[in-house]
């Protein structure tokens, strides 16, 4: 039943006779209603209200599609895309989606967008994907509105625009699309395109519980409980775990250099990963400055809020050597001068994190450090804790390695 619901979720706004009984669907099909024929076929595909008969389901869908019914064409494409009763064939799926879309089916527009986005049955073309998502969204298709909203949220193929993202999500959520409700709750919680509101975020999550399995409802209740108690992202976790993980993503080729230093994107990723209501490290106060050392080496310095305690950071930095394919994460950490070793009243320690290959320096399995990282400690910073002094110090360390 769960598989059926996942499949049927794609059809919000498409079914003409959702509420009819099986017998009513059969009667309507006998009278020549091809939409009802496809509705009945879906029931056979997943054994919903009838005995499971995948072969009959596909046969009924194909019959409607070959008669030019745009709903049947959409569903024939879905069968080929997701291997419902036939082998996966993206070329065939694309052909049926295109035919359905040409007849004005808005959900088929969305499926064309997905085909172009992932290069399924056609060339990969993000501009065309956005075009078809826009066509479906303007036609009121909930899935198109949701898909397009995510592009505006992160700026993928379009200029980042949280207000447009929020408006599209509201339209999709008002049609009951579950994923839109979930993302809309994050928009309210993080203030993406709308004023922050924990109450509205919780309202969206309560709506999301409708019709869900008990295990999913329990997960949603846990999220609501975290929101109510004011779940907090620890500044230390952000500076010594999350930011180094982003460097790891850069080193692996998962993100590019511009994404690495996109503070707004970092906030988005945190908003996607957690339902956090309070950041101990005020993310809105962060800024980044870039130092181009030579043709190969670049230093990106992240300016943190003034550290309130040890070992929080005043600065963190990514040092990237493109020529030699090396990168390191450095920190300037507030420290304690218990025994007056540093020689200054307000001491700072130069530290950081690095990806290491040798087993001696690698953090042990099960530690709190990101996989493959080791914590570095280079001792007291000599001189004043200025950005210039920090950059010069870490460049010496980086080049000496």
Brief summary of the model shown:
With 401 residues, the chain is α+β, with helices and mostly antiparallel strands. It has helices at residues 2-8, 22-30, 34-46, 54-66, 70-82, 90-102, 106-118, 126-138, 142-154, 162-174, 178-190, 198-208, 214-229, 235-251, 257-260, 263-273, 387-400; strands spanning 232-233, 278-279, 287-292, 297-303, 313-321, 326-334, 348-355, 373-380.
Characterise this structure.
The protein is of the alpha+beta class. The chain has 17 helices and eight strands. The strands form two sheets. Strands 3-4-5-6-7-8 form a six-stranded antiparallel beta sheet, with helices on both faces. A two-stranded parallel sheet has the order 1-2. A hairpin with a 4-residue loop joins strand 3 and strand 4. Helix 7 packs antiparallel against helix 8 and helix 9 packs antiparallel against helix 10. The protein starts with a helix and ends with a helix.
Give descriptors for this structure.
single chain, 401 residues, alpha+beta, six-stranded antiparallel sheet, two-stranded parallel ribbon, 17 helices, 8 strands, 13% strand, disordered N terminus
Blueprint (SSEs and pairs):
Blueprint: H1 2-8, H2 22-30, H3 34-46, H4 54-66, H5 70-82, H6 90-102, H7 106-118, H8 126-138, H9 142-154, H10 162-174, H11 178-190, H12 198-208, H13 214-229, E1 232-233, H14 235-251, H15 257-260, H16 263-273, E2 278-279, E3 287-292, E4 297-303, E5 313-321, E6 326-334, E7 348-355, E8 373-380, H17 387-400
Parallel strand pairs: 1-2
Antiparallel strand pairs: 3-4, 4-5, 5-6, 6-7, 7-8
Helix pairs in contact: 2-3, 3-4, 4-5, 5-6, 6-7, 7-8, 7-9, 8-9, 9-10, 10-11, 11-12, 12-13
């Amino acid at each position: 039943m769960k598989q059926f619901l996942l499949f049927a979720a794609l059809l919000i706004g498409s079914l003409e006779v959702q509420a009819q009984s099986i017998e009513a669907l059969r009667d309507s099909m006998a009278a020549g209603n091809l939409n009802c024929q496809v509705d009945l076929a879906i029931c056979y595909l997943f054994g919903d209200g009838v005995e499971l008969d995948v072969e009959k389901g596909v046969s009924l869908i194909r019959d409607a599609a070959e008669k030019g019914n745009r709903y049947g064409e959409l569903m024939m494409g879905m069968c080929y895309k997701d291997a419902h009763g036939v082998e996966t064939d993206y070329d065939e799926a694309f052909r049926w989606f295109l035919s359905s879309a040409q007849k004005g089916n808005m959900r088929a527009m969305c499926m064309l967008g997905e085909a172009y986005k992932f290069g399924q049955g056609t060339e990969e073309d993000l501009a065309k994907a956005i075009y078809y998502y826009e066509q479906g969204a303007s036609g009121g298709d909930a899935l198109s509105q949701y898909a397009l909203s995510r592009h505006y949220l992160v700026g993928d193929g379009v200029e980042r625009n949280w207000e447009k993202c929020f408006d599209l999500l509201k339209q999709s959520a008002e049609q009951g699309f579950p994923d839109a409700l979930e993302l809309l709750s994050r928009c309210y919680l993080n203030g993406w395109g709308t004023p922050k509101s924990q109450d509205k975020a919780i309202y969206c999550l309560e709506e999301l519980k409708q019709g869900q399995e008990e295990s999913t409802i329990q997960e949603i209740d846990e999220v609501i409980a975290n929101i109510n108690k004011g779940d907090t992202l620890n500044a230390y976790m952000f500076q010594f775990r999350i930011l180094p993980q982003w460097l790891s993503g850069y080193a692996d080729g998962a993100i590019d250099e511009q994404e690495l230093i996109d503070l707004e994107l970092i906030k988005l990723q945190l908003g996607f990963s957690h339902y956090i209501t309070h950041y101990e490290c005020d993310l809105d106060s962060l800024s980044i400055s870039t130092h181009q050392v030579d043709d190969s080496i670049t230093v990106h310095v992240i300016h943190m809020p003034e550290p309130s305690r040890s070992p929080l950071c005043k600065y963190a930095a990514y040092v990237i050597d493109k020529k030699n394919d090396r990168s390191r994460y450095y920190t300037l950490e507030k420290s304690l001068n218990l025994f007056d070793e540093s020689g200054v009243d307000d001491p700072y320690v130069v530290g950081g994190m690095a990806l290491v290959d040798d087993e001696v320096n690698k953090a042990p399995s099960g530690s709190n450090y990101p996989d493959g990282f080791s914590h570095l400690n280079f001792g007291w910073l000599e001189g004043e804790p200025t950005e210039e002094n920090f950059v010069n110090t870490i460049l010496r360390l980086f080049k000496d390695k």
